[in-house]
Amino acid sequence: MHTVTLIPGDGTGPEIADATVAVLKAAGAPIEWEKKEAGLQAYEKGGDLLPEDVLESIKRNKIALKGPLTTPVGTGFRSVNVALRKELDLYANLRPAKTYKGIQSRYDHIDLVVVRENTEDLYAGVEHMVGEDAAESIKIITRKGSERIVRFAFEYAVRNNRKKVTAVHKANIMKCTDGLFLNVAQEISREYPQVKFEDRIVDNMCMQLVIKPQLYDVMVMPNLYGDIISDLCAGLVGGLGVAPGANIGKDIAIFEPVHGSAPKYAGKNKVNPTAILLSAVLMLRHLGETNVAEKIERALAEVLARGTCVTYDLGGKATTSEMAQAIIDQL
Ligand code: NAD
């Protein structure tokens, strides 16, 4: 039995978290949940955005499944998501994008993995106003940060029988920061001769992914490019409703969908539970529970392929809980 911290999150988070807990239970996944509130939910009850007991629970269990947390735009309110990744040094953000039969998308047979650096770059939060009419943000890239993320991408490629790693950068313009990232990627790639290595400039990478995504496999990149490219990849395979993710550190990992809290649908039992369920599947694989992970993914793939009980974003009329029940019935 594995004890896992469960943070249902804000907005539509609790609905999709409930759906996932029900599916994992029906599949017989050996998980005991430790449920915790963070973000707006905790704040509105007079607590901290990131209560100490949430951090303690994750540090103790070393593993968490998390729904989306809301970050109001342009206020002093810092992103709890970014704070969690920093506090726990979850340096690798893994975002697979795969096509499933039945989901309308521009291409078939896409199987891409974005490995995004999660702690540095413009997300280091070193930003200030320069007088009243200018603002400055500092981009930080280090050798240590680049080495560990590139190594993570190669190790992932080897473990998962992937053939190629592409480093994504803008080193033609940002010669220091992205130049360092690219140099490190080239150095580390020599330690993995069995995996093909290449690099792409980020703007070209976007175009290539839109016109010939089949040419790519695992991609590794600094934080900001990873944020953007992973949404692009989610769009290629059917949208945010089906895009899972994981934040992984040395010995702690938090699994969460790529999408946010979709507040306009909160409480409406409307959004797609697939992204968080696939995040839970990644989590089960990470825990070594491969059989139950495969069982859930197969049941989900069947429901998606049939297409009769899917949510609005996939062209269906089912509610979140109806889709979860269809997956449970399939199990
Ligand atoms: P969002 O991902 O919440 O929603 C964008 C749109 O995508 C929604 O309006 C909806 O149409 C669609 N969508 C998202 N999830 C879906 C699902 N499961 N099923 C079907 N459709 C879905 O992005 P946003 O509106 O930019 O952000 C809302 C809030 O979420 C913000 O406060 C933002 O900071 C936060 N956010 C949190 C995380 C996280 O917790 N990791 C990630 C991104 C955004």
Describe the protein in words.
40% of the residues lie in helices and 19% in strands. A hairpin with a 3-residue loop joins β6 and β7. The two termini are 20 Å apart. The strands form two sheets. It has a ten-stranded mixed β-sheet with strand order 2-1-3-12-11-4-5-10-8-9, sandwiched between helices. The protein folds into two domains: 184 residues, Isopropylmalate Dehydrogenase (3-Layer(aba) Sandwich); 132 residues, Isopropylmalate Dehydrogenase (3-Layer(aba) Sandwich), CATH 3.40.718. The mean pLDDT is 94. It is globular and about 55 Å long. It contains eleven helices and twelve strands. With 331 residues, the chain is α/β, with parallel strands linked by helices. The site of nicotinamide-adenine-dinucleotide (NAD) has 18 residues, from loops.
Could you give the topology of this structure?
Elements: E1 2-7, H1 13-27, E2 31-35, H2 40-44, H3 52-61, E3 63-66, H4 80-87, E4 92-98, E5 111-117, E6 127-130, E7 134-137, H5 143-159, E8 164-169, H6 177-189, E9 196-201, H7 202-211, E10 218-221, H8 223-236, E11 244-248, E12 253-257, H9 274-286, H10 290-306, H11 320-330
Parallel strand pairs: 1-2, 1-3, 3-12, 5-10, 8-9, 8-10
Antiparallel strand pairs: 4-5, 4-11, 6-7, 11-12
Helix pairs in contact: 1-9, 1-11, 5-6, 7-8, 9-10, 10-11
The structure holds nicotinamide-adenine-dinucleotide.
Residues 68-71, 81, 240-241, 256, 259-264, 271-272, 275, 313 line the site of nicotinamide-adenine-dinucleotide.
